[in-house]
Design brief:
The protein is an alpha/beta fold. The protein has eleven helices and twelve strands. The chain binds 5'-O-[(R)-(carboxyoxy)(hydroxy)phosphoryl]adenosine and zinc ion.
């Protein structure tokens, strides 16, 4: 793709067809992670810095948008400086060697997005380089290009706090959502169920850990009955609520936390696997990837990786590229995965 620099209007070719090494610096600040990274040619991570706000929000049991935005403001310059420092140390790069600057545009918390996006735009203006706006969900998918040789076409399962989608990735820039949740996202269901059984924020990873010690067959929970490749998790959430009430009313026994977690995790992961298999069979693809914060889940990973025994190639980013980070944003900018190239692009909270 050809993008123009901002002051001198010089055309710059970016992406696999450019014929020279691209170094893209990206900033991510859509929720509670302030992140900056520099990636060479969409795959090789030169610098990767993430400042997490988990400790701050844990006190409140969830992300408080106004506090998150203020924390981004405190951290943004620090993560940018550290990324430049790592790039110098790891590859001898100077800020003027950056090919283009990228920033997450949405979906996310508006006040948070504004901090990172304005920093990315400012860097592009300062160094007179192209600016590339990135969609956070596409970036999660591109986390799979980091340190791998994955090439489209493939089937993708995107599971995060706000989204649950099956995406047919036909090429780097062409993708189609072929299944999604009609109510709660998987991460949302994890966090709600975790709260219900009294686990502290962030509940998803804690529930996952406890589930590994429990019996997945202890309680039968209902899979959402939805046609085709769509999902529904709200019925499951209600069933867990009912089960928890019933178990708690029995004061003769200790509450079986690990078994409840394992049964919930079993139900969610087998539903996801079933639909992904269906999508793979329909498409004829032999590659599948998982992405998004919930792709860090041990049982979902295990079930999807089991598809290797059926001849599929399976990709899942390492943990550090599953949760929010900026390396995936840089990769998305390089591969031009539905990017925005106008410096005037505005942040957005939801997928339009
Ligand atoms: O993608 P992400 O970092 O943020 C967005 O939603 O964009 O995903 C965060 C979600 C949270 O709901 C969190 O509880 C969930 O991912 N999560 C997990 C695990 N690690 C993170 N859920 C289940 N098991 C995990 N190991
Ligand atoms: Zn995310």
């Amino acid at each position: 793709m050809i993008k123009n620099t901002l002051f001198t209007n010089k055309p710059v070719t970016i992406g696999p067809e450019s014929g020279y090494d691209n170094y893209i610096m990206a900033i991510e600040s859509s929720c509670d992670e302030t992140a900056c990274a520099i990636v060479k040619n969409g795959r090789e991570v030169i610098a990767n810095v993430v400042a997490s706000q988990i400790k701050t929000h844990a006190k409140f049991g969830g992300v408080i948008p106004e506090i998150a935005a203020r924390e981004h403001m405190d951290s943004i310059n620090i993560v940018i400086d550290e990324a430049f420092r790592q790039a110098k140390e790891n590859a001898g790069l100077n800020p003027s060697d950056i090919t283009a600057f990228a920033g997450t545009v949405g979906p996310g918390l508006v006040g948070c997005l504004l901090v990172g996006l304005n920093a990315a735009k400012t860097l592009a203006l300062t160094y007179d380089k192209p600016f590339i706006g990135v969609n956070h969900l596409n970036a999660h998918l591109c986390g799979n290009y980091l340190d791998t040789d994955l090439k489209p076409p493939f089937m993708a399962l995107l599971v995060s706090g706000g989204h649950t989608q099956i995406i047919d990735v036909k090429s780097y820039s062409e993708q189609r959502i072929i299944g999604e949740t009609i109510d709660d996202a998987v991460g949302e269901a994890y966090d709600k169920v975790a709260r219900l059984i009294g686990l502290p924020y962030p509940g998803g990873p804690k529930l996952d850990k406890l589930a590994q010690e429990g019996n997945p067959k202890a309680y039968r929970l209902p899979e959402g009955k939805v046609e085709g490749l769509n999902f529904s998790f709200s019925g499951l959430k209600t069933a867990v609520l009912r089960l928890v009430k019933e178990l708690k009313s029995n004061t003769d026994m200790e509450f079986p936390t690990a078994d409840v977690c394992a049964s919930f995790q079993e139900c969610v992961s087998s539903t996801l696997l079933k639909k992904v298999k269906k999508a793979l069979e329909n498409s004829g693809y032999n590659q599948v990837v998982i992405a998004g914060g919930v792709a860090a889940n041990s049982e979902i990973r295990r079930k999807i990786f089991n598809l290797e025994n059926e001849g599929y190639k399976v990709f899942a980013p390492p943990m550090k590229y599953c949760t929010d980070n900026a390396a995936m944003v840089a990769s998305c900018a390089y591969f031009n995965t539905n990017t925005f190239d106008d410096i005037n692009v505005e942040v957005f909270s939801r997928v339009k």
